[in-house]
Design a protein that fits this description.
85 residues; three-stranded antiparallel sheet
Length: 85
């Protein structure tokens, strides 16, 4: 449908280990980038607050993240992006 793949916000969910998020960029379907201020430590099993996207219900092409796993000797972190409507 017309609304499929369109989001007002995203939220990050971290598994496996804590991460320090250094940079987050959302690239929309039209190629326009949007840098979102996250710069924070996200604990394993936690989610961020909803991160609002610019404009009204945008289609996302990709999300580029630069983050560092906080060492815990249990493995690597996985960061999942959840689209919110």
């Amino acid at each position: 449908g017309r609304r499929e793949g369109r989001f007002k916000a995203i939220r990050l969910h971290v598994r496996g280990a804590d991460v320090e998020m250094l940079d987050l960029k959302v690239v929309y379907a039209n190629g326009q980038p949007d840098d979102l201020p996250v710069r924070a430590v996200i604990r394993q099993g936690e989610r961020t607050r909803p991160l609002d996207l610019r404009g009204f219900e945008r289609s996302i092409d990709r999300v580029e993240m630069i983050y560092r796993t906080v060492p815990n000797f249990k493995g690597l972190a996985t960061v999942c992006v959840e689209g919110l409507q």
